[in-house]
Amino acid sequence: MTANATDAPRTGVVGHRVGVRRPPRTLVTAAVVTAALFALPGGYVVWRVMGGSGSPLALLASRRTLEPLWRTIQLAVLVSTSTAVLGTGLAWLTTRTDLPLRRLWRIVVPLPLVYPSFVGAAAFISGLAPGGIVHDLVGYLGVDLTTRLHGLTGSWLVLTLFTYPYVYLPVAARLTALPGAFEENARLLGDGPRRVFARVVLPQIWSSIAAGSLLVFLYTVSDFGAVHLMRFETLTQTIFRTRLFDRDRSFTLALLLLVLALLVVAAERTVSRSGRRRGAGLTALGDRRSLTVPLGRWAAPALAATTSVVGLALVAPAVSLADWGLFGFLRARHGGMPLRLDWHDVLGPTWNTVWISVLTALVATVVVLPVAYLVARHRSRLGEVVNAVVVAGFAIPGLVVALSMIFWTMHASPFEFLIGSMPVLVFAYVVHFGAQAMRTAQVAVGTVPRRMDDAARLLGAGRLRRLATVDLPLMAPGLAAGAGLVMLSTMKELPATLLASPIGFRTLTTQIWNTYEALFLPETAILAMVLLCISAVLTWLLVVRRSEHLR
Amino acid sequence: MNDTTPRRPRRRLAAMPTAILLVLGLGASTTACGGDPESLTVYSGRSEKLISPILEAFTADTGIALDVRYGSSNDLALLLAEEGDKSPADVFLSRSPGPAGFLDDLGMLAGIDDDVLDRVADGDHSPDGTWVGFAGRGRVLVYNIDEVDAADLPDSVFDLTRPEYQGRVAVPGSNSSFQDWFTLFRLRNGDAVAIAWLDDMVANGSRFYPKNGAIVEAVGRNEIQFGLVNHYYNFQKVASNGDDQRSANHGFAPGDDGGLMIIATAAVIDSSGEKDAANQLLAHLLSDEQQTYLTNKVYEYPLALGVEPADALPPAPTYRVGAVDIDDIAAEFKRTMEIIEASGVLDQ
C-alpha cells in the first residue's frame, strides 16, 4: 500500500485547503488499481447490455421496469431510515450509557447480520406462522398473530432486523473512539443528556450513520432471499427471475441497479460532507475515557427496547431454528428418520467458513485503506471517484459478481488458470464486500488528528512508521468494525461461493443451502446454529475486544 | 460426504499469513486436474443431499472420481454459458429441462449415446438426444387433509377456477417447475386458453407463494388449503414429520393438463474430453439399481423403462415434457414469464 518509505517533499505540497496535502504517488497508483479491479463487475454488466439484442432504453421506460424500480426505492428508503434509528440508538445505549448487561449486548447486537437472508427470513416466517414457536408463545400471552407477513411490510421488517448492524457497528466504533471530554463539558455547562446527544454526539457520529445507512440501502436493493420469501418483486427479484431466459432484460436491470447505487453513493457523500462542515472532526486525541450517561428511570425501558430488538432479530429466528433442530433430534430418538448430518458435514465447512471470512476481512481492509486516505485525508477528487466505484459495487447481486469474475478470468488469458481457484473466490468476496470496509475506514482515517501525524513527521518518523505507531492504533476500532462487517457478510455469502469456489469447497452457508433446498429443515437448523455460534465468537474476538482494550 | 475432496491441513488463526500463502499456492494446484482421465467434473443442479449417494456409487463401481459443483440449475447453466468451451464440466445435471434446453440452444451439449437414450421412453429425452431425463417429479395438487374431504378433490386443473376454490389455492408463479409446467400447458392448449386460465385463477383470488416447499408448509398448517406443487415436497415433509404433517398430494385425473411430469435431466457438455466416461455416468444414473434407489429413497419417479415407481407414489402423470419439440426454448420461456407477469399473479 503506502509502502513508499521516502517522505513526500515538503515544499510546495500544501494544497489549496489548509492542512490538506497532495497525495503521494503510491497512494494514487494504489487507488487507481483498486478502482479498476472493483469496476470489473460493473464493466461486465455494461458489456453484456451493449452486446444484447434488445433496446435497453425502451425496456427501461416500460411499466415492467418502473414498477419494480419504484418498489425497490420504497423498500430501500424505508429500511435504511429505520436501521439508522435502530442502529444508532443501540450503539449509543451500549457504548454511552449504564445499560445493564452492556458487554453481552456488544457481542450479540451485531449478530443478526450473519443469518443468510433466505434462512433468516424462512425461520422468521415459520416462527410467526400458525404452529410456529413464536406464534404459539405469544398466543399463550393472548396475542393472536393472524396476519401473514409479506410484501412491503414483511420485507421491511425482516430486512430492518437483519441489517441494522450495518449502522450499529460503525456508529458504535465511532462512539468508542470519541473522547468524552466534549460531552462532559456540555453537561457541566448545563445541557441535559438529550441536548448533549443532539448538539455534541450526533454531529460527531453523523458520517458513520450515513455510511451505515448507505450500506443498508445498497444491501436492500441487492437482496434476493428475504424479498423472495416475502413475495415482494424488487429489481433484484426481476433480475433473478429473468436471468436465464431473458438475459437482455436481466442485465439491463442490473445496470439500472448500478446507476441507482451510484446516485445514492453521491448523495451520501454530499450528506456526510455537510456533516463535516457542521463542526465534526473532533478527534480521538486526549482523554480516552468516554462519558457514561446514567439511564436512571429510563434503564428499564431501554433494557426492554434492546431486549425486544435482539429478541426479534436474533432470538426469534434462533428459536425457530432450535425448534426445527430439536424436532430432528427427537424424531431420530423416537425411531423416526435419523438426522442426515455427520461431523464431517459440520467440521470442515466450519473451518472453511472461519478462515475464508477472516482472510477476506483482512484483505478487504488493506485494499480499501489507500482509498480511505485519499478521500479522508487528502480530500482528493480521484479518491471520491474511486470511493463511488467501490461502494456502488455493493449493489450488484452476488450472482452477477461471480459471473463477472468467471467472465474476466476467461477473457484475460494469462489468468485463465485461476478459474475455480481460491484467489478468485477471495477476490470476488473482496470486490463484493469491500464497500463495507470502505466507509468505516474513511471515518477511521478521519479520526486521526493531523497534528499527531505532523508531530511524528517532524520527529523524523517515516510514513510506514507513522502508519504503524500513530494511525493504526487510533484507527483500530473503526477498521475492526468495517472488517467485522466484511467478515459476517462473507460467512453468509452464497452465490459466489457456489459458482466461483474451487470445486468441493464447502462453507457452512453452502451446506445450509444444500439441506434447505432438499427441505431437510432439522439439518438446516443445526448448521445455521453452528454458523451463529462461530460468528458470535469471531465478533467477540476480532471486533468487540479490539475496541474494548482501548477503553 | 465427498471423500475425494483433499483435506486441508488445520491451522489456527495466528497462522493467517501462512494461510494466505497457502491459498495463493492452492490456485495452481486445484485447476490442474481437468485432463485427468480418472475423474469427471459434474455441475449438479440436483441437491447434494439427494444425489450424492448415487454419485458415490458410481465412483465405487468404476473408480472414476467425481468433482461436483452444486448450485441452482439456472445459475450453473449461466456459469457454463460464461465458461463456454473452456468449461471444466463434463456432465450437467439439471432439476428441469429448461436450463439444459438453454445450453442446447447455445450449442453446448453433445449428443448422448443411443444405448443411454434407449433406457427411457421417447418423451423423456430431448428430440435431438442432447439431454436425457433420469428422475421425475409429478405436478400435483397438495391439500390440507383436515379441511378438505378427499371425495371433493378436483379432477382437472381447470376446476380450480370455480367459486369453491376462491382464495384457497396457492400458485408458485415465479418457480421454475411451475414455469416449466405452464410453458407446456400453453403449448398444448394454446396461449388463449392458458392466459384465460391464469387470469381466472387470479380473479378467483389464488395466492402467490415463491416456492413449492413454502406452499407445502403453508398447506400443512392450514394457512391455505390447496397448492400447485411438485409431489416430492410433501413426501419429504411426511417422511420427516409423520402424522404431524397435515397435507397430502392429489394427482389430477389421468390425462389432465394439471399433471405434467417434470423431469430432472442429465447432459454431456460438448467441450468435454471425457465423453465416454460421461455417458457411462448417465448410464449409471439410469441403471436399474440407481433408479430403484431414486424412487424408494428420494420418492421420485424412475424414468428407466422397466423400473416401477415406489408403491407410495401416486400414479405417474402421463404427459412428458420431452414429448414436445420446442424450437426456441428461451423464447418460449420468455413468453411464459411475460404472461405470468401480465396476469398479476405475482402480486397476489
Low-confidence stretches of chain B: 1-36
SSE sequence of chain A, one letter per element? HHHHHHHHHHHHHHHHHHHHHHHH
Approximately what portion of the residues of chain A adopt beta-strand conformation? under 5%
Q: Average pLDDT value of chain B? A: 85
Radius of gyration of chain B: 22 Å
Give the strand content of chain B. Answer: 15-25%
What is the overall shape of chain A? globular
DSSP strand tally of chain A: 0
Largest interface: A-B, 68 and 71 residues
Descriptive account of the structure:
The complex is a heterodimer of chains A (551) and B (348). In chain A, helix 9 packs antiparallel against helix 11, helix 10 crosses helix 11 and helix 19 (422-446) crosses helix 21 (463-492). Helix content of chain A is 73%, strand content 0%. Chain A has helices at residues 25-38, 40-51, 56-60, 63-96, 102-108, 117-128, 133-140, 151-163, 165-177, 181-188, 193-222, 225-229, 235-241, 247-277, 299-333, 343-376, 381-392, 398-411, 422-446, 450-458, 463-492, 495-500, 508-517, 521-548. Chain A is mainly alpha-helical. Chain B has 348 residues and is of the alpha/beta class. Chain B has helices at residues 16-30, 48-62, 73-83, 97-105, 114-117, 176-189, 191-203, 212-220, 232-241, 275-285, 288-297, 329-343, and strands at residues 39-44, 65-70, 91-94, 109-110, 131-144, 169-171, 207-208, 226-230, 247-250, 260-269, 301-302, 319-320. In chain B, strands 1, 2, 3, 4, 5, 6, 7, 8, 9, 10, 11 and 12 form a 12-stranded mixed beta sheet that branches. Chain B is globular. The two termini of chain B are 41 Å apart. The relative contact order of chain B is 0.18.
